[in-house]
Amino acid sequence: MKGLIGVLGGMGPAATVDLFNKFVTYTIANKDQEHIPLIISSIPDIPDRTEALLNHGVSPLPLMTNYLKKLEDAGAECIVIPCNTAHFWFDELKNTCHVDMLSIVETTMQEVLLTKKKNIGLLATNATMYMGLYQKSIEQKKLNCITPDEESQKLVMKSIYLLKSGNKDAAEEIMKSQAELLFSRGAEVIILGCTEVPVILANEVKKHPNKYIDSTGSLVRASIHWYENRVGKSHLIITENLK
Amino acid sequence: MKGLIGVLGGMGPAATVDLFNKFVTYTIANKDQEHIPLIISSIPDIPDRTEALLNHGVSPLPLMTNYLKKLEDAGAECIVIPCNTAHFWFDELKNTCHVDMLSIVETTMQEVLLTKKKNIGLLATNATMYMGLYQKSIEQKKLNCITPDEESQKLVMKSIYLLKSGNKDAAEEIMKSQAELLFSRGAEVIILGCTEVPVILANEVKKHPNKYIDSTGSLVRASIHWYENRVGKSHLIITENLK
Fold first, then answer.
1. Is the pLDDT of residue B238 over 60?
2. Catalytic: which of B78, B97, B145, B194?
3. Under an 8 A CB cutoff, do A33 and B25 touch?
4. Which residue out of B8, B42, B73, B77 would a mutagenesis test of the A interface target, given it has the greatest number of A Cβ atoms within 10 Å?
5. pTM: predicted TM-score of the whole model, two decimal places
6. Which residues does chain A have with pLDDT short of 50?
7. Confidence at residue B233, expressed as pLDDT on a 0 to 100 scale
8. Using a CB-CB distance cutoff of 8 angstroms, which residues of chain A are in contact with residue B75?
9. Is B78 among the catalytic positions?
10. Greatest CA separation found in chain B?
11. ipTM of the assembly?
12. Residue B34 touches partner A, C-beta closer than 8 Å
């Protein structure tokens, strides 16, 4: 299938649903057949990424490699991973992969640069923070990265795990306060640098699309561009105003 | 992967997102790893099912068979298809398939019988209506099937294709009136017998869950039961009140 995009998902499942939904809603299509072809692995037994990186937990790399191979075998020509923390292993996965891969950190940073803002807030997992997945790129561009303090970061993690356990309302209440704190400390725009966060803050992002960079959204927009280039169809355009 | 469920989707993509979302929200899970493992094909170039059945269009069967095989090759142990009209070819697909398959028509009818209602409304595509996918089962059970009249059925189809082209609000307005008409003609409960319809009427179903049988929801609930039996985990239960 020309242009088939493989999604290495399940990290977590709700974030993978969010990515899939954005593929459907960001594509202008008049009928089923004009939508982007996707093959989605949502096999969630991949070990917790933050646990692996910060608490000597089991490495998720072997299962990620295994499921990535399944997607390749099914004919995927490009692979995306809707989990920021998993991008710690991006280069290793790319080395084993025989098709294109798009990095969510790169697609998100491209959208950050388009905003021309200088003070960039960041909501992400402890591991994404600790590994500096975003901070390094932000600082390389001479921008200022504003991250939650230690107590706030604990609440960010609490909110993420609340969503993973199905409690969206409680997750939203906590995460909203953490976003407000970053704005009060001078953030002009906030990177939602964990794919659970755009699910948690969906109402906020809808109300104030220009205040957030949704990492999942950026990955979907970049994937649609990849598909357009691959199949040469120019009628597939992006409907979001975050450009 | 023990218990891996394959989803033969893309018919249409929004309905497949809806199914995936229901898998995540109907499963009680405290962490990613407790969710149901899924491999989802959303390759939407499968020819239109209604066109094939009513207007001598290209048959969707060869591509459905092909994508079903991909899911089997990826390790799926049970296959589900979130498209009612596609179930016209269910037996042919089952004959080529080496693993379990659950029929959306059967899972929906099981939930219809649980309601103990006698007057069953039906919202579905022209082809599902014409082929009698639901009417036959309903009449076998000595129940009364109430379907839209010819003019109303045209509006049902218009609403379904509006959703497929991304216009949910217009689709909702039309479909809501058609549901009201069926209730005014004596329907006690309405089968949403096309997987686009629960997406279109999502707000209505949320308000009045006992007035509708959501075919997608029934397929997800049956799939979760299948998974529980397969892996022997009893903590996976169903949160919906439609039981």
1. no
2. B194
3. no
4. B42
5. 0.95
6. 235, 239-243
7. 72
8. 70
9. no
10. 49
11. 0.95
12. yes
